Amino acid sequence: MAGSTFAVIMAGGSGTRFWPASRTLRPKQLLPLVGDAEGEDDPSRASLLAATVARIAPLVPPERILVVTAKALVEATRRAVPELPAENVLAEPAPRNTAPCIGWATRTVLARDPEARVLVLPSDHHVADTQGFRDTISRALDAADHAPLATIGIKPTRPDTGFGYIETGAPLEGLAAASGGHVVARFVEKPDLVRAREFLAAGNFLWNSGMFFFRAKEMDASIRAYLPELADGLDRMGQGANAPKLDEIFPTLPSISVDYGVVEPLAKEAASGRRGRIAVVSGDFGWSDVGSWESAWELSPKDQDGNAAPAGTVLVDARGNLVRATAGKTVALIGVDELVVVETDDAILVMPRSRAQDVRAVVDALKATGRAAKLT
Amino acid sequence: MAGSTFAVIMAGGSGTRFWPASRTLRPKQLLPLVGDAEGEDDPSRASLLAATVARIAPLVPPERILVVTAKALVEATRRAVPELPAENVLAEPAPRNTAPCIGWATRTVLARDPEARVLVLPSDHHVADTQGFRDTISRALDAADHAPLATIGIKPTRPDTGFGYIETGAPLEGLAAASGGHVVARFVEKPDLVRAREFLAAGNFLWNSGMFFFRAKEMDASIRAYLPELADGLDRMGQGANAPKLDEIFPTLPSISVDYGVVEPLAKEAASGRRGRIAVVSGDFGWSDVGSWESAWELSPKDQDGNAAPAGTVLVDARGNLVRATAGKTVALIGVDELVVVETDDAILVMPRSRAQDVRAVVDALKATGRAAKLT
């Protein structure tokens, strides 16, 4: 099928789970996965966003990579990926969840190539096996030629309750068996541990990776069909980084995720046979959503005692710790195991790795005091 | 008995147990006990040395307080106690343990008042009950009028193995019973836990506080008798902060503690009846030698969860922690108990309070690497 391939990278997040490293104006995707600045040839040491761009660069040239971010982050985002044309960084005037983001990017792609295929990627994930990732992307793009929408499902390695799951159905018709495409039987919300274990045992459940693959005009048609208010708004707003009525219209677009607004209704129609079924391609390329400091520890290089710490850290009877500190700061740990110790210019966090999900409590506490807004 | 009272404060220490706050050029006695700089009316928030001077100020005026320190620390020491005349800060050209220190200070006192009484105090201890401390000092000075040497023994509150002990003997003759002076039956080295428990149960053992009380000429005579080489050296060196041959002679003086060099031989002679017996006065005034970060936590004000932390520290499910940080740094603790978290301009230490004795291992490790000499 004809048409060039575009990538849309969603980089509007402002998560709090990496406090104190992450802040409203320095979100996770603009942070390095590994703290120290050595090894500049590894883009994940610059930022997760830069690593995402570098990962797909052999498949999609910079001029066809779009990044959608928040208005407040646009300059920092452009600095993070200087190889992209400035007009390829789309700045949302207000956060409206993923459907308006993808709708706007899709219109922008369509204006450049009405036959384009699009891959939508999160900006803040980690991939260990880059070649495996690219192979899976290619298969997902193929699958998107045989379905209105394709996604990548990650082969689960543990009964994780932090992800949605995809139950796979029959092999996808029209696609080579080797490509591994299947019809999506159903999308499942984040399960409890009992169900997650059942999914893992069943063998035909995959983690929902949040990646989408589609022909631009298919997505545009789906939005027109399922989110007509969004389609109308986009009609009036226009496309591109400098859409004529961006500031006026974008904040009024319906705030809804592409999962609820497009994927679910599409899945229902597919089940009733009215439209083509959603495709899922399974992937196994060392994927992580880098969801917490615990993940950062898992993904970081470690010494023989399991410590992920900058060179020069003094470790006395210390195991399994994650240490990050500003340049020139020597950290010493004595007799502590499995801690997270993160220092920035203005803050220090100390907690067990197992409490990584509770970082939000600190950010909430800081916001509640009303002091030092820049701390959050 | 006639003669004015002088205080000699030994402030030459360069301990490593408060790293990273303490350094060679910023030893414990020049540090505040409590980290933040608020409450300047409490001298222990300025430095332990300043607190020591303030504690005895009602008993001894500044012009009769001498401080003996190391040459490298003399300027910092003078800044810490600006109320003392500069010539009252004696700077040792080389560390020679306590006998030369006390010998030199005693000669310096004798030159000002041949009938003087002297109290020798460590510079880095903490006292909770200042009035009780002063009362005990007065009793010890009285006792020193009836013995060649007096000391204060601290009523033990636990079987501590970190202190030497003093076994008390008969009440001291010639002293009012109310003053509580006793003859020292014997000095005991740091015991093991079994013996320390026996001492505590026996009831007639006290902790050796390292404070000495004597008439200056008695001490000078004892040094002449038991450490003639030191006495000869002091003869040639001269007295005062600007002793004529200080730099030449002091480094050649015998390096020996006053305990081994003077107190022990004196105790033996006393046992054989040749000289007067050593006196000990028991004290119970909330004394601590502030020997580690654990002690610092014990002595610091704490919140209802036992955390000793600066205002603004974010504590989520955290108990019994000691936190110190530089101004402008917000520390957040999640789900950690009984940790020490100390940050300075160039270092961070994290350890359980129970590992406070192991701080030396970090300093040793840093010295071994040879990097960043200023870190130690």
Strand content of chain A: 15-25%
* Largest interface (C-beta under 8 Å): A-B, 37 and 37 residues
End-to-end span of chain A in angstroms? 47 Å
Question: Helix/strand-derived class of chain A?
Answer: alpha/beta
* Range of helix content of chain A: 25-40%
- What is the radius of gyration of chain A? 21 Å
Count of helical regions of chain A: 11
* Overall morphology of chain A: globular
One letter per element, helices H and strands E, the order of chain A comes to EHEHEHEEHEEEHEHHHHEEHEEEEEH
Number-wise, the strands of chain A total 16
Give the low-confidence spans of chain A. 35-40
State mean pLDDT of chain A (0 to 100 scale): 91
Assembly type of the chains comes to: homodimer
Strand order of the largest sheet of chain A: 6-9-7-8-10
Main sheet record of chain A? 5 strands, mixed, barrel
Describe the structure.
2 copies of one chain form a homodimer. Chain A contains 11 helices and 16 strands. By secondary structure, the first copy, chain A, is α/β, with parallel strands linked by helices. In chain A, strand 2, helix 2 (74-80) and strand 3 form a beta-alpha-beta unit. The interface between A and B is large, with 37 and 37 residues.
What's this entry about, in short?
2 copies of one chain form a homodimer. The first copy, chain A, has helices spanning 48-56, 74-80, 98-112, 130-144, 193-202, 216-226, 228-237, 246-249, 258-271, 293-299, 359-369; strands at residues 5-11, 65-70, 89-92, 117-122, 126-127, 150-154, 165-171, 181-188, 205-215, 279-283, 287-288, 314-316, 322-324, 330-334, 339-343, 347-352. Chain A is α/β, with parallel strands linked by helices and 376 residues long.
